[in-house]
Amino acid sequence: MSTLLTFLRVCLLAFITLSPALSIAADAGSPPTADGDATPKVNASAELPKMQKILDKIKGQVSGETNDGKLGQLNDMALELSGNADTLGQALIPQRAQLVSQLAVLGPAPTAESGVKETPEVTRKRTSLESQKSKLDDQIKQAEAIKNSSLNLSSQIVSLRRDAMKTQLALNSGSIFGARFWAPLFGTDNTDGEKISSFADELSATAALSWEPGWRFGTVGWIIAALLVATFGRRYSEEFFAWISIHKMPEGRLRRSFLATTIALTTLVAVVLAFNFIDLAFTRRAEVSDDVQDFVDKLVQLSVFCGLIAGLGRAFLSTRRPSWRLPAISNEVATALKPFPPLTASLVFVFQTVESFNSSAGTSVGTTIWANGLTALLVGATALSISFRTSRARRKMLQEGLQPEARSTLVGLIQLAITLTGMAILASLVIGYVTLSRFLSYELIWIGIVFGSFWLLSHLIQDGCESLLSTNNTTGKQLQTSLNIDERHLSQAAALLSAIGKTILILFAAVAILNGTLGTSTPIELLQKAVEFWGGKGLESLNIVPAHLVNAILCLVVGIYVLRSVKRWLDKDFLPKTTMDIGMRVSLVTLFSNIGYVLIILLTLSTIGLQWNKLAWIVSALSVGIGFGLQEIVKNFISGLILLTERPVKVGDLVSISGIEGDIRRINVRATEIQLGDKSTVIVPNSQLISQNVRNATMGNAQGVATITLTFPLDIDPVLVRQLLLDVYNENERILETPEPSVSFKDLTPGGIVLSVTGNVASPRQVSGAKSDLLFDILTRLRKEGVMLSTPQTMVIERKNGNMVLKEAPEE
């Protein structure tokens, strides 16, 4: 590439040095001699093919080049070639004029009707001059074509560089404190000035067309309509929806979320309609140029994003109705932040308009960099101002003895992210990375729009589902009556519909963040990208670029946050409203969590550019590791999945394994936590619960058995003691009536009569407590009835006449 560029530069340098000679030759050229052998001093026949060849080579290099520096060199070469072609064409014009003068001296060829005959020498001379003139005309046209093609190529190169700057984040274009950044304002090159003046004249001509007689009334009407929609239309629409919210909506949170959503939508619709009316006021005539129409269409599309910024800001802050404010923001903080939504919307509109103007006018890259840098500077300063004014308002409340609102961790992280992004934008401008600062500025605004819309709409969906399906409201009562369903099923349906709606919103938010950017995507385009993205096409076409790395980090953070939110929703909201036991609920949540983390990791890798069908090397590497050191981990992981699916044991079961008995508290990916009676925890690998014998005392809702064995003297009344034991068991509230308690005669020994009394309790966990209560009652009743338990006999060894004799020790 560098060799070809050097060759092209040498060729162009030859043309540059040749240009003065061409001009001198044109000035000193003499008309052809009488014999017609004289030719023009400029050898255009040899130079024009060389120029065309160089132009074709430059085009070929531009088509496959992405480096900004080399594109700049090719642009300079195209401009030099254009100047050389123009010089060559101007050098040929005097020679053509001489030929025209000589042809005028000879006069026109005589016709057959005139009867005039001219000598063959004059005829030959006229034919030679006309041939030379025709050749010069073709050469002048070719030179003009090369000149125009070179200028068009230069414009295309500038457009490519301008578009490439949006993705080449590592391009250092000079600090904002350097003269290079401010050169477009004080530079001596008038090329940009001419382009800007030319496009401004087109805009002025468009405005003049709309003000011609016969069109003025319509122009004034559309402008007045735009002003009315932007002011009174927005205000009275907001008042109308507020009335509906108060008088027609059921009491509850739905009123606030509905009003906040309508405030955002009315602001958005008012701004978009106003810009469309202005578009119709000035560009409704067919004579409007395509460049002007495209420029105005970009402004109309930009109005959507500006309306969203202003509308979301008004909806969140709600300074006119503080009691209806949806987020937990104090009045002092809301008042301090009130100017920033319209200010941010104005900044975005102004500088996006400047960027669109530069693109339509075809200004140089330096002017584009200046506009982008100024945009990033103001956006970064605004971001820092938002964070600083929020902190100052909260400090002022503390100084006045007021308690500011309690901020969640998410709100704190958002403010920290805004502060750090603002500082990164300003730092990038200082060190010269204008493209990076512009990217961060627009990504900050775009992510704010996406997350703000998601938060507002998710609250509206959740509140709407809960309110409309609640039996406290008319709609819920009608549904319950018409469908004859339980209230619990309505609450389950509300939670499920809310989850489906939030899932759809998450899909749109993810696609908007990963594939969209400020001013480049409409809602319809985002919908198409969502279908392609989640259909697999979007994932397979991703490449590793700096912007995708940022998207991957966002995807990972958002995915983890969404997964945890869904887990929390399943655990706290949806599953408790079902008939599942707690063990089944915990198993489902754990299984969902494991699968969710795997999907998030795969999605993050795909966002970076690693396609799913190209991850075979990861599987191969893992297989080697599994073969050596990960066997136990994988075995326990698979065992954990078996435990969660087959559920031989579940959370809450009382199990006994290898002498350990306790309650299962959690089944993790690798091991299971068993809590013992003394509240200590034993970690048991999942593979042991699959491969070893496990006693599950609570499987199938098993009952506990409280059995007490007692030994009585031989002289007791067995019938009396039996009835006494049964009475104690029957009177205990923990002993079940079915099956009935029973007393069995276990054994008759020299030490006494052994009786066993048995009764069932509701759960094995109640056995210990029930036995304790029963023993207290039995001993108390036996003493009251005068029945004694058999005392243990003590045997002593005595030696008589050299022999050992066993003898019962006497009672003391």
UniProtKB/TrEMBL annotation:
A Gene Ontology term for the protein's cellular component: plasma membrane
Gene Ontology MF annotations: mechanosensitive monoatomic ion channel activity
DUF3772 domain: residues covered: 140-197
Domain Mechanosensitive ion channel MscS: 633-698
Signal peptide: 1-25
Pfam families, sorted: DUF3772, MS_channel_1st, MS_channel_2nd
Topology with respect to the bilayer: Multi-pass membrane protein
Biased composition (Basic and acidic residues): 115-134
Subcellular location per the Swiss-Prot or TrEMBL entry: Cell membrane
Region (Disordered), start-end ranges: 111-134
Main location: membrane
Protein family membership: Belongs to the MscS (TC 1.A.23) family.
Protein name: Mechanosensitive ion channel protein
Organism: Winslowiella iniecta
